[in-house]
Sequence to fold (347 residues):
Amino acid sequence: MISKLGLYLIKKFLARMFDFWLFLTTIVFSIGVIEIVMSRGGSTSHATLIDALLTRLDDLPEYLNETMAYAGYAGSIITFWALSRSRELQQIRLMGATKVLIKTIIGAGAIFGMLQVFVIAPFASEVRIQQKDIRLVRKNQNGEQLILFAKNYNTSNGLIYGGARVLLLDNSFNLQAIYSAERGKITKNAWTLEKNQRKDNSGAQKISEKKTFPVETDMIALANVLQESAREISIYNLPAAYTEARINERSVRPFLDRALFFIHLPLTYIAFGLIAYAVALYLTPRGTGMQLVLLVIFLPCAVKLLQHILWTQVGAASLPAVLPTFGLPLAFCCAAALSVRTQRLFI
Fold:
C-alpha cells in the first residue's frame, strides 16, 4: 500500500516530468516549423506556415518519443531541486523516510517508462515504419515481370499510401501496361491496387475499382529489410515476433533484442531518478544555477548518444542487447553512488 507521502511525491515527480516534456516538445516542434519556413525563403504567408505546421505535425510522435528521455531526467532533477529549496528533502531524510523516497523514485520512473513502452513508442513506431519510395520486382505466374513503385508503405499492415504504380513487362522487358493508384496493399499472395487506372503501350486507358496481381511476397523478410532497427517494432507486435521466433530460429535474436529494449526503457528512467537524487544531495540548494543547467543539458545528451551507439552495435549483431538493457542503467546507478560517496545516499 502506497503511503500518503509516497503518493504526494509521485504526483510531484510525474507533474514535473510531464511539464518539462510538454515544454521541451513545444520548443523542438517550434524550431522544426521555423526550419521549414526558413528553407522556403523565410516566407510568412499563411500557406507556408500552415504547410510547415502540418509537416511537423506528422513528425510529432517522433518528437514526443525522443524528448521523453530528457524530460524524465530533467523533471526528476527539477523536482529534487524544488524539494531541496523548500527543505522538504531534508525533512524527509531526517524523519527516516528515505526508503519511501527511493520507492517513489522507482515508481515514478517505472510509470514514465511504461508510458513510453505502451503508448508513445508504439505510436511513434507506427509512423517510422512507413517507408518511402520502395520498389519491388517480381515475376507472375505467366513469367511476366512486375515492378511496383510505392510512395509510402507501412510494414506493419502492408498498406500503400500516397500513390503507387505497377509496371507490367514481358519476358523481353518490353512495357505492356502501367497501373496507377493512390492506395493499395501488399499481401503474401498478391499485390492489390484500389481504384486504379490502366494505361497500355498504345495509350489506351481503363479505370477499375480493384486490380490484383498474383505474386508471392515474403512479408517477414520485406518488413525486416525495410525496418531501420530492431527497436522500430511496436510492443504489440511482440506476440507475432515470438511466433516467428519459434518457427524460424534465425529470428530469435531480433525478438530478444526487441523484448529487452522495452525492459531497458523503465530501467533507464529509474536510473535517471537515482542520478537526480544523487545530484540533489551533492549540490546545495542555492548557488547551483550554472552547474544545474550543465547537468540538465549535457547528461541526457551524453546518455542518448551512448544509447544510440550501443543499440546501433546491437543492430549490427556485434553486441548483445543485454549490455545496454541492464549494463547501461546499472552504470548510471554506480556513477550516482560514486558521485555522492561522501553522502549517505540510502539511509
The longest helix spans residues 4-39. The two ends are 21 Å apart (CA to CA).
